[in-house]
């Protein structure tokens, strides 16, 4: 097991290294440089040139790359030119928001998907099963931004049940109960959007798993020993089916990151995805590159996490 | 990643070769798939014929007098901020989105098939190197990188957009084809063909490829829906089609303006619904095809 983890981590390192080089090259290809934003009619072009030279923009690329990486390892990702604060601080605030949104999304997602998947499998071909299967088809096919817009329009604008933008009402004191409730109120709509779309895999998997388990020997044994039907499902089948779901957790996080760009953008939720789009538009490259590196790292971490959980949960994989 | 491949192989074992008669039979058995196929046929024909008849220049002409004209006020489906007909943009946009969806699906399938055939058949070092590259691209934050590419490419147009999308989305197909070819190339008919001295090229493209063609068709169908979704999504964010080219994503994108979203439904809702119907229909057909390709799931 530790061998698998070690091997996976060892694969991760070159992947991160290559990703960092690609991002560095992209950053160099992006038009303009960090000092272009400082240029106003009053500035002296020579002064800007001096700043560029001092920042080492005319050094050979590999020296620039090593310097960039060195700083990155020390947690220094440069300054955001749009917000005039260190990238680390800026992303830290946004990452916090994205993390809370993801957490609520995941909780909602599992609380929808697990009961639906198990029930659909237990009552296979019933009306409930058909409804769940239909919902599954739709949630698989609907693009994130279409559902987000329809939800925002309906629950936000038409019914007015939820706030339409932001992550918290301005003026509330952090730490108070009111602040907390307000934050949850802001998060429910975007989190629900994500949860409704992300259930597909889990429902499908649980449903199939429960249907398969019905005819397996251990279930037959339990039944023949006189275990009540309810307990057969809650204890035997459920416990065996739910474990592998844990393994998808990492991929769920990965999917969340991709979807967060659309959801945060539409709900104007101040998270990392929203920051990415606005930084691209304002050409705030130090933020853009740091965000891609962070997302790449989190994606890798997600798939690593999945594989580790899977190897704990499924002994068949541990053997290899 | 490894575990995923393993799973694919298990499914593969239970499959029987699929003829096109099975596909037709399976779709006929599934009412929803039949309806979906009908909807798609009508939709595609209507969109392509009317897009060919429409005058694009005239539709994209700004006419400020008609700003936000509601449906019925001179336009069937109303007009946008520039007084341009929503219906006209819907038709041209749908055609553009469909064409790009098909183009990306075509190119990614081509790359995926060729690379997948080679890695799966020859195995060894080539396989190892290519699969590491595939693994690497799979874990990239694709959406963000595409957005960055779109902003840095000089002379950015429809062709570069198709190209950029294709670079990132070929790996899934490669992985699938490779796992199918791996099992296929151990079958008796391939071994027999090898001993008879048939060239590798012929075995790959004349013998193995036809036998996995049903899987390719299923996968391309499902990918088509996915690719249209990605294109419209990127255009929605403002990083897809160049501004002068209408797409369904452009129309939906107007909804980022709160006023449009809350009170000018005719601008963004038709395009959203069209995307939704298209996705659902393509996926329904795709799922029916999937059942046809997997003997265990067939309806009969």
Question: What does it look like?
Answer:
The complex is a heterodimer of chains A (320) and B (300). Chain A has helices at 2-29, 45-54, 61-73, 87-122, 127-141, 144-158, 177-214, 217-224, 229-247, 249-266, 272-281, 285-313, 315-319. Chain A is mainly alpha-helical. In chain A, helix 4 (87-122) crosses helix 7 (177-214), helix 6 (144-158) packs across helix 7 and helix 7 (177-214) packs across helix 10 (249-266). Chain A is globular. Chain A starts with a helix and ends with a helix. The model of chain A has no long low-confidence stretch (mean pLDDT 82). Chain B is mainly α and 300 residues long. Chain B has 15 helices and no strands. Chain B has helices at 2-13, 20-29, 31-53, 56-59, 86-122, 124-138, 142-152, 158-168, 171-184, 188-195, 200-211, 213-237, 248-253, 258-263, 265-293. In chain B, helix 3 packs across helix 5, helix 7 packs antiparallel against helix 8 and helix 12 (213-237) runs antiparallel to helix 15. The interface between A and B is large, with 46 and 41 residues.
């Amino acid at each position: 097991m530790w061998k698998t983890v070690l091997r996976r981590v060892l694969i991760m390192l070159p992947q991160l290294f290559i990703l960092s080089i690609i991002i560095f090259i992209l950053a160099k290809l992006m038009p303009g440089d960090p000092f272009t934003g400082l240029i106003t009619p009053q500035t002296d072009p020579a002064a800007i040139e001096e700043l560029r030279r001092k920042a080492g923009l005319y050094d050979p690329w590999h020296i620039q790359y090593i310097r960039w990486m060195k700083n990155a390892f020390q947690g220094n990702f440069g300054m955001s030119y749009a917000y005039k604060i260190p990238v680390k601080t800026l992303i830290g605030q946004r990452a916090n928001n994205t993390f809370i949104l993801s957490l609520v999304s995941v909780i909602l997602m599992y609380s929808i998907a697990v009961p639906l998947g198990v029930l659909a499998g237990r009552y296979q071909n019933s009306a409930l099963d058909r409804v769940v299967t239909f919902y599954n088809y739709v949630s698989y096919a609907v693009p994130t931004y279409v559902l987000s817009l329809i939800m925002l329009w309906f629950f936000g604008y038409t019914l007015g049940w939820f706030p339409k933008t932001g992550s918290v009402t301005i003026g509330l004191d952090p730490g108070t109960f009111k602040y907390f409730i307000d934050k949850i109120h802001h998060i429910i709509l975007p989190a629900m959007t994500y949860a409704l779309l992300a259930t597909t895999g889990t429902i499908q998997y649980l449903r199939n798993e429960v249907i398969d388990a019905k005819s397996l020997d251990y279930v037959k044994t339990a039944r023949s020993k006189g275990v009540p039907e309810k307990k057969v499902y809650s204890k035997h089948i459920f416990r065996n089916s739910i474990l592998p779901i844990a393994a998808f957790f990492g991929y769920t996080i990965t999917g969340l990151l991709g979807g967060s760009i659309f959801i945060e953008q539409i709900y104007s939720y101040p998270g990392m995805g929203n920051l990415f789009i606005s930084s691209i538009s304002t050409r705030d490259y130090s933020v853009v590159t740091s965000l891609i590196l962070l997302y790449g790292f989190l994606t890798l971490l997600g798939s690593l996490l999945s594989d580790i959980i899977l190897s704990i949960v499924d002994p068949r994989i541990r053997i290899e | 990643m490894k575990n995923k491949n393993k799973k694919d192989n298990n499914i593969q074992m239970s499959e029987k070769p699929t003829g096109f008669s099975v596909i037709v039979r399976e779709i006929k058995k599934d009412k929803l798939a039949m309806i979906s196929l009908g909807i798609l046929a009508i939709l595609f024909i209507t969109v392509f014929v009317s897009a060919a008849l429409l005058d694009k220049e005239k539709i994209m002409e700004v006419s400020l007098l008609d700003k936000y004209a509601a449906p019925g006020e001179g336009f069937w489906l109303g007009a946008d901020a520039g007084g341009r007909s929503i219906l006209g943009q819907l038709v041209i946009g749908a055609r553009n989105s469909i064409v790009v969806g098909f183009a990306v699906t075509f190119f990614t399938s081509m790359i995926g098939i060729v690379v997948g055939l080679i890695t799966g058949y020859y195995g060894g070092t080539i396989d190892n190197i290519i699969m590491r590259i595939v693994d690497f691209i799979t874990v990239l934050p694709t959406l963000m990188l595409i957005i960055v590419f779109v902003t840095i490419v000089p002379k950015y147009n429809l062709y570069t957009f198709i190209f950029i999308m294709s670079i990132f989305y070929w790996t899934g197909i490669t992985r699938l084809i490779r796992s199918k070819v791996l099992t296929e190339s151990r079958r008796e008919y391939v071994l027999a063909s090898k001993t008879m001295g048939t060239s590798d090229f012929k075995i790959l493209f004349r013998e193995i490829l036809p036998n996995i063609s049903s899987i390719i068709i299923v996968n391309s169908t499902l990918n088509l829906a996915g690719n249209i979704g990605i294109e419209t999504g990127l255009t929605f964010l403002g990083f897809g089609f160049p501004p002068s080219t209408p797409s369904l994503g452009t129309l939906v994108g107007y909804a980022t303006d709160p006023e449009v979203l809350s009170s000018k439904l005719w601008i963004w809702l038709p395009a959203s619904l069209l995307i939704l119907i298209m996705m659902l229909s393509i996926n329904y057909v795709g799922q029916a095809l999937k059942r046809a390709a997997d003997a265990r799931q067939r309806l009969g």
